[in-house]
Write a structure and sequence with these properties.
It holds the Pfam family Beta-lactamase. Keywords: Hydrolase. This is Serine hydrolase. GO terms for molecular function: hydrolase activity. There is one protein chain. The chain has a single domain, classed as DD-peptidase/beta-lactamase superfamily (Beta-lactamase, 3-Layer(aba) Sandwich), CATH 3.40.710.10. α1 packs parallel to α5 and α1 crosses α6. The protein contains nine helices and 13 strands. The protein has 355 residues and is an alpha+beta fold.
Length: 355
Protein backbone atom coordinates (compact mmCIF):
# COMPACT_ATOMS: atom_id res chain seq x y z
CA UNK A 1 0.00 0.00 0.00
CA UNK A 2 1.22 3.48 -0.86
CA UNK A 3 0.68 6.53 1.39
CA UNK A 4 0.57 8.92 -1.57
CA UNK A 5 1.94 9.46 -5.04
CA UNK A 6 1.79 11.67 -8.11
CA UNK A 7 2.14 10.83 -11.80
CA UNK A 8 2.51 12.63 -15.09
CA UNK A 9 2.49 11.66 -18.76
CA UNK A 10 3.99 13.92 -21.41
CA UNK A 11 3.41 13.74 -25.15
CA UNK A 12 4.71 16.01 -27.92
CA UNK A 13 5.93 18.73 -25.59
CA UNK A 14 2.81 18.97 -23.42
CA UNK A 15 1.52 17.51 -20.18
CA UNK A 16 -1.24 15.11 -21.17
CA UNK A 17 -2.00 14.00 -17.62
CA UNK A 18 -0.83 14.83 -14.13
CA UNK A 19 -2.42 14.27 -10.74
CA UNK A 20 -1.81 13.20 -7.17
CA UNK A 21 -3.42 10.43 -5.14
CA UNK A 22 -3.59 9.29 -1.53
CA UNK A 23 -1.99 11.15 1.34
CA UNK A 24 0.99 13.47 1.58
CA UNK A 25 0.55 12.88 5.32
CA UNK A 26 -1.52 9.97 6.64
CA UNK A 27 -2.06 11.24 10.18
CA UNK A 28 -3.50 14.62 9.12
CA UNK A 29 -5.23 13.18 6.01
CA UNK A 30 -3.46 15.79 3.89
CA UNK A 31 -3.97 14.96 0.21
CA UNK A 32 -1.10 14.29 -2.15
CA UNK A 33 -1.67 16.62 -5.14
CA UNK A 34 0.22 17.67 -8.26
CA UNK A 35 1.58 20.58 -6.21
CA UNK A 36 2.90 18.44 -3.34
CA UNK A 37 6.68 18.55 -3.08
CA UNK A 38 9.10 15.89 -1.93
CA UNK A 39 12.71 14.75 -2.33
CA UNK A 40 13.21 12.94 -5.64
CA UNK A 41 16.29 10.89 -4.78
CA UNK A 42 18.82 10.21 -7.51
CA UNK A 43 16.74 11.78 -10.27
CA UNK A 44 18.45 14.86 -8.79
CA UNK A 45 21.67 13.72 -10.50
CA UNK A 46 20.25 14.54 -13.92
CA UNK A 47 20.37 18.20 -12.87
CA UNK A 48 24.09 17.83 -12.17
CA UNK A 49 24.40 16.51 -15.71
CA UNK A 50 22.57 19.49 -17.21
CA UNK A 51 24.59 21.92 -15.07
CA UNK A 52 27.90 20.38 -16.19
CA UNK A 53 26.91 20.51 -19.85
CA UNK A 54 25.79 24.12 -19.44
CA UNK A 55 29.08 25.00 -17.76
CA UNK A 56 30.96 23.41 -20.66
CA UNK A 57 28.82 25.39 -23.12
CA UNK A 58 29.74 28.55 -21.23
CA UNK A 59 33.44 27.66 -21.43
CA UNK A 60 33.79 27.22 -17.67
CA UNK A 61 35.11 23.66 -17.82
CA UNK A 62 35.78 20.70 -20.09
CA UNK A 63 34.34 17.32 -19.19
CA UNK A 64 37.67 15.68 -19.98
CA UNK A 65 39.54 17.89 -17.50
CA UNK A 66 41.00 16.12 -14.46
CA UNK A 67 38.91 16.67 -11.34
CA UNK A 68 41.99 17.80 -9.44
CA UNK A 69 42.24 20.83 -11.71
CA UNK A 70 39.20 22.18 -9.83
CA UNK A 71 38.94 20.61 -6.39
CA UNK A 72 40.56 22.35 -3.41
CA UNK A 73 42.01 18.96 -2.38
CA UNK A 74 43.67 16.09 -4.24
CA UNK A 75 41.87 12.80 -4.95
CA UNK A 76 43.45 9.73 -6.55
CA UNK A 77 42.81 6.01 -6.70
CA UNK A 78 45.70 4.64 -4.60
CA UNK A 79 45.77 1.58 -6.85
CA UNK A 80 46.47 3.85 -9.85
CA UNK A 81 48.13 6.97 -8.41
CA UNK A 82 49.28 8.33 -11.79
CA UNK A 83 45.93 7.89 -13.57
CA UNK A 84 43.82 11.03 -13.79
CA UNK A 85 40.14 10.93 -12.85
CA UNK A 86 38.22 13.26 -15.16
CA UNK A 87 34.89 15.03 -14.77
CA UNK A 88 33.47 12.70 -17.44
CA UNK A 89 34.58 9.67 -15.43
CA UNK A 90 32.74 11.02 -12.40
CA UNK A 91 29.62 11.85 -14.44
CA UNK A 92 29.47 8.42 -16.12
CA UNK A 93 30.14 6.52 -12.88
CA UNK A 94 33.42 5.17 -14.26
CA UNK A 95 35.72 7.10 -11.89
CA UNK A 96 36.83 4.07 -9.90
CA UNK A 97 35.27 5.51 -6.74
CA UNK A 98 33.31 3.04 -4.67
CA UNK A 99 30.67 4.26 -2.19
CA UNK A 100 31.44 2.73 1.21
CA UNK A 101 28.92 2.15 4.00
CA UNK A 102 30.01 5.55 5.28
CA UNK A 103 27.80 7.10 2.59
CA UNK A 104 24.88 6.55 4.97
CA UNK A 105 26.51 9.25 7.13
CA UNK A 106 25.34 11.78 4.51
CA UNK A 107 21.69 11.69 5.66
CA UNK A 108 20.93 14.32 8.29
CA UNK A 109 17.43 14.04 9.77
CA UNK A 110 15.51 16.91 11.35
CA UNK A 111 14.57 14.75 14.32
CA UNK A 112 15.24 11.35 15.86
CA UNK A 113 13.93 8.25 14.13
CA UNK A 114 11.67 6.87 16.86
CA UNK A 115 10.76 3.51 15.35
CA UNK A 116 9.83 0.14 16.73
CA UNK A 117 12.54 -2.27 15.44
CA UNK A 118 9.97 -5.08 15.24
CA UNK A 119 7.92 -3.14 12.65
CA UNK A 120 10.66 -2.20 10.20
CA UNK A 121 12.42 -4.15 7.44
CA UNK A 122 15.40 -6.16 8.66
CA UNK A 123 17.84 -4.43 6.32
CA UNK A 124 16.97 -1.06 7.83
CA UNK A 125 17.60 -1.90 11.47
CA UNK A 126 21.35 -1.32 11.23
CA UNK A 127 20.78 2.19 9.85
CA UNK A 128 18.45 3.57 12.51
CA UNK A 129 21.15 4.06 15.18
CA UNK A 130 23.53 5.47 12.59
CA UNK A 131 20.95 7.94 11.22
CA UNK A 132 20.21 9.15 14.74
CA UNK A 133 23.92 9.84 15.27
CA UNK A 134 24.47 11.73 11.99
CA UNK A 135 25.28 15.42 12.12
CA UNK A 136 25.68 18.09 9.46
CA UNK A 137 29.12 18.44 7.92
CA UNK A 138 30.57 20.56 5.09
CA UNK A 139 30.55 18.53 1.89
CA UNK A 140 34.32 18.92 1.40
CA UNK A 141 34.97 17.55 4.88
CA UNK A 142 32.75 14.56 4.11
CA UNK A 143 34.43 13.84 0.76
CA UNK A 144 37.88 14.10 2.33
CA UNK A 145 36.85 11.76 5.15
CA UNK A 146 36.05 9.06 2.59
CA UNK A 147 38.53 9.49 -0.28
CA UNK A 148 41.56 11.38 1.07
CA UNK A 149 44.31 9.43 2.79
CA UNK A 150 44.04 9.87 6.54
CA UNK A 151 40.29 10.48 6.41
CA UNK A 152 38.12 8.85 9.07
CA UNK A 153 36.39 6.52 6.59
CA UNK A 154 39.23 6.22 4.09
CA UNK A 155 39.88 2.63 3.02
CA UNK A 156 41.60 1.18 -0.02
CA UNK A 157 38.39 -0.71 -0.75
CA UNK A 158 36.74 2.66 -1.40
CA UNK A 159 38.43 2.44 -4.81
CA UNK A 160 38.00 -0.12 -7.59
CA UNK A 161 40.74 -2.38 -8.89
CA UNK A 162 40.24 -0.94 -12.38
CA UNK A 163 41.76 2.32 -13.56
CA UNK A 164 39.47 5.34 -14.13
CA UNK A 165 37.32 5.27 -17.26
CA UNK A 166 37.19 1.48 -17.58
CA UNK A 167 34.62 0.02 -15.19
CA UNK A 168 31.11 1.17 -14.31
CA UNK A 169 30.35 1.54 -10.60
CA UNK A 170 27.56 3.82 -9.42
CA UNK A 171 28.75 6.44 -6.94
CA UNK A 172 26.56 8.85 -4.99
CA UNK A 173 29.53 10.62 -3.42
CA UNK A 174 31.03 10.96 -6.89
CA UNK A 175 27.96 12.98 -7.85
CA UNK A 176 28.56 15.22 -4.85
CA UNK A 177 32.14 15.73 -6.06
CA UNK A 178 30.78 16.74 -9.48
CA UNK A 179 28.63 19.43 -7.87
CA UNK A 180 31.69 20.83 -6.08
CA UNK A 181 33.63 20.94 -9.35
CA UNK A 182 30.77 22.94 -10.88
CA UNK A 183 30.96 25.39 -8.00
CA UNK A 184 34.73 25.82 -8.30
CA UNK A 185 34.53 26.24 -12.09
CA UNK A 186 31.64 28.72 -12.06
CA UNK A 187 32.34 30.67 -8.89
CA UNK A 188 28.67 30.12 -7.94
CA UNK A 189 26.98 27.83 -5.47
CA UNK A 190 25.47 24.77 -7.10
CA UNK A 191 22.05 25.90 -5.88
CA UNK A 192 22.38 29.32 -7.49
CA UNK A 193 23.81 27.95 -10.74
CA UNK A 194 20.97 25.47 -11.22
CA UNK A 195 18.39 28.07 -10.25
CA UNK A 196 19.69 30.58 -12.79
CA UNK A 197 20.33 28.26 -15.70
CA UNK A 198 17.67 25.58 -15.17
CA UNK A 199 14.86 26.33 -12.70
CA UNK A 200 14.25 29.97 -13.68
CA UNK A 201 14.66 29.23 -17.38
CA UNK A 202 12.03 26.50 -17.28
CA UNK A 203 9.68 28.05 -14.72
CA UNK A 204 10.25 25.55 -11.89
CA UNK A 205 8.90 27.80 -9.14
CA UNK A 206 8.39 25.07 -6.50
CA UNK A 207 11.85 23.55 -6.71
CA UNK A 208 14.78 23.94 -4.32
CA UNK A 209 17.82 22.14 -2.93
CA UNK A 210 17.36 23.73 0.48
CA UNK A 211 15.05 22.21 3.08
CA UNK A 212 15.22 25.51 4.97
CA UNK A 213 13.37 27.20 2.09
CA UNK A 214 10.51 24.70 2.12
CA UNK A 215 7.11 25.26 3.67
CA UNK A 216 6.70 21.87 5.32
CA UNK A 217 2.91 21.98 4.91
CA UNK A 218 3.55 21.64 1.17
CA UNK A 219 5.98 18.73 1.55
CA UNK A 220 5.02 15.08 1.63
CA UNK A 221 5.93 13.16 4.77
CA UNK A 222 8.40 10.37 3.91
CA UNK A 223 7.42 6.90 5.10
CA UNK A 224 9.60 3.89 5.87
CA UNK A 225 6.54 1.63 5.92
CA UNK A 226 2.87 2.53 5.62
CA UNK A 227 2.10 4.53 8.76
CA UNK A 228 5.74 4.62 9.92
CA UNK A 229 6.74 8.22 9.22
CA UNK A 230 10.31 9.47 9.00
CA UNK A 231 11.49 12.96 9.93
CA UNK A 232 12.31 15.29 7.05
CA UNK A 233 15.99 15.21 6.13
CA UNK A 234 18.71 16.70 3.96
CA UNK A 235 21.91 15.26 2.51
CA UNK A 236 25.47 16.44 3.02
CA UNK A 237 26.13 15.44 -0.61
CA UNK A 238 22.87 17.22 -1.45
CA UNK A 239 23.13 17.33 -5.25
CA UNK A 240 23.21 13.52 -5.55
CA UNK A 241 19.67 13.06 -4.22
CA UNK A 242 18.34 16.08 -2.35
CA UNK A 243 16.30 18.03 -4.88
CA UNK A 244 12.83 18.93 -3.58
CA UNK A 245 10.18 19.47 -6.24
CA UNK A 246 6.63 18.69 -7.40
CA UNK A 247 5.33 16.47 -10.18
CA UNK A 248 4.32 19.61 -12.09
CA UNK A 249 7.78 21.20 -11.92
CA UNK A 250 9.45 17.90 -12.78
CA UNK A 251 7.11 17.59 -15.78
CA UNK A 252 8.23 21.02 -17.02
CA UNK A 253 11.82 19.83 -16.67
CA UNK A 254 11.23 16.61 -18.59
CA UNK A 255 9.43 18.53 -21.35
CA UNK A 256 12.48 20.78 -21.67
CA UNK A 257 14.83 17.81 -21.79
CA UNK A 258 12.74 16.11 -24.47
CA UNK A 259 12.72 19.31 -26.53
CA UNK A 260 16.43 19.69 -25.95
CA UNK A 261 16.99 16.19 -27.35
CA UNK A 262 15.21 17.31 -30.52
CA UNK A 263 17.22 20.51 -30.79
CA UNK A 264 14.35 22.74 -29.64
CA UNK A 265 15.35 23.37 -26.02
CA UNK A 266 16.23 26.58 -24.23
CA UNK A 267 18.69 25.28 -21.66
CA UNK A 268 21.11 23.22 -23.80
CA UNK A 269 21.96 22.74 -27.45
CA UNK A 270 20.93 19.52 -29.18
CA UNK A 271 24.59 18.50 -29.41
CA UNK A 272 25.21 18.87 -25.68
CA UNK A 273 21.92 17.24 -24.77
CA UNK A 274 22.54 14.12 -26.85
CA UNK A 275 26.12 13.87 -25.62
CA UNK A 276 24.77 14.01 -22.06
CA UNK A 277 22.34 11.17 -22.72
CA UNK A 278 24.65 8.90 -24.73
CA UNK A 279 26.42 6.14 -22.74
CA UNK A 280 30.13 6.80 -22.26
CA UNK A 281 31.27 3.19 -22.42
CA UNK A 282 29.83 1.93 -25.70
CA UNK A 283 30.92 -1.70 -25.39
CA UNK A 284 29.88 -2.40 -21.81
CA UNK A 285 26.85 -2.65 -19.57
CA UNK A 286 27.29 0.93 -18.35
CA UNK A 287 24.11 2.88 -19.14
CA UNK A 288 25.39 6.36 -18.22
CA UNK A 289 26.40 9.37 -20.22
CA UNK A 290 26.59 12.50 -18.06
CA UNK A 291 24.37 11.50 -15.12
CA UNK A 292 21.61 10.43 -17.57
CA UNK A 293 21.07 6.74 -18.33
CA UNK A 294 19.54 4.62 -21.06
CA UNK A 295 17.49 1.49 -20.51
CA UNK A 296 19.00 -1.87 -21.48
CA UNK A 297 17.00 -1.73 -24.71
CA UNK A 298 18.30 1.76 -25.41
CA UNK A 299 14.77 3.01 -26.05
CA UNK A 300 14.20 4.95 -22.82
CA UNK A 301 16.30 7.74 -21.32
CA UNK A 302 16.08 9.12 -17.79
CA UNK A 303 16.79 8.14 -14.21
CA UNK A 304 15.18 6.66 -11.12
CA UNK A 305 15.73 7.48 -7.49
CA UNK A 306 15.20 5.99 -4.08
CA UNK A 307 16.07 7.39 -0.66
CA UNK A 308 14.58 6.96 2.81
CA UNK A 309 10.84 7.41 2.35
CA UNK A 310 10.85 8.38 -1.33
CA UNK A 311 10.90 6.85 -4.79
CA UNK A 312 10.91 8.56 -8.19
CA UNK A 313 10.94 7.34 -11.80
CA UNK A 314 11.45 9.70 -14.74
CA UNK A 315 11.93 8.41 -18.30
CA UNK A 316 11.11 9.34 -21.89
CA UNK A 317 11.16 7.54 -25.23
CA UNK A 318 12.58 9.75 -28.01
CA UNK A 319 11.16 7.50 -30.72
CA UNK A 320 7.60 8.08 -29.47
CA UNK A 321 7.90 11.57 -27.99
CA UNK A 322 6.42 10.26 -24.74
CA UNK A 323 7.64 10.71 -21.17
CA UNK A 324 6.32 9.59 -17.80
CA UNK A 325 7.07 10.36 -14.18
CA UNK A 326 6.05 8.87 -10.85
CA UNK A 327 6.80 10.24 -7.37
CA UNK A 328 5.97 8.24 -4.22
CA UNK A 329 6.44 9.17 -0.54
CA UNK A 330 7.59 5.71 0.50
CA UNK A 331 10.53 3.54 -0.46
CA UNK A 332 9.72 -0.08 -1.41
CA UNK A 333 10.86 -2.04 1.62
CA UNK A 334 8.34 -4.90 1.35
CA UNK A 335 6.70 -6.93 -1.42
CA UNK A 336 3.29 -5.28 -1.17
CA UNK A 337 4.79 -1.80 -1.63
CA UNK A 338 6.92 -3.01 -4.53
CA UNK A 339 3.84 -4.51 -6.18
CA UNK A 340 1.83 -1.32 -5.69
CA UNK A 341 4.57 0.75 -7.31
CA UNK A 342 4.81 -1.68 -10.24
CA UNK A 343 1.05 -1.48 -10.68
CA UNK A 344 1.07 2.33 -10.83
CA UNK A 345 3.92 2.28 -13.37
CA UNK A 346 2.03 -0.35 -15.34
CA UNK A 347 -1.05 1.87 -15.54
CA UNK A 348 1.12 4.69 -16.87
CA UNK A 349 2.49 2.36 -19.54
CA UNK A 350 -1.04 1.42 -20.62
CA UNK A 351 -2.01 5.10 -20.80
CA UNK A 352 1.16 5.74 -22.77
CA UNK A 353 0.13 3.09 -25.32
CA UNK A 354 -3.31 4.67 -25.77
CA UNK A 355 -1.98 8.11 -26.63
Amino acid sequence: MLPGFSVAVIKDGAIKYEDGFGFADIESKKSYTKSTIQNIGSVSKTFIGVALMKAEELGLLDLDDPINDYLPYHLINPRFPTEKITIRHIASHTSGLNDPDAYERAYVFEGKLAVDPSTIPRGWKKYIKLYNENEGLPIDSFIISVYAKGGEYYRKKNFLRKKPGVQYKYSNIGAGIASRILEEASGMSFSNFTKQYIFDEIGMTSTTWNLDEVKLDDKATPYLTYGQALPHYSLITFADGGLITSIHDLSLYLIEMMKCYEGKGRVLSEEKCKEMMEPYLKDSKSPYGVFWSRSHSGLSIGHNGGDPGVLTNMYFMPSKGIGKIMMVNIMPTDKSTEEAIRNVWGVLKKYEEKI
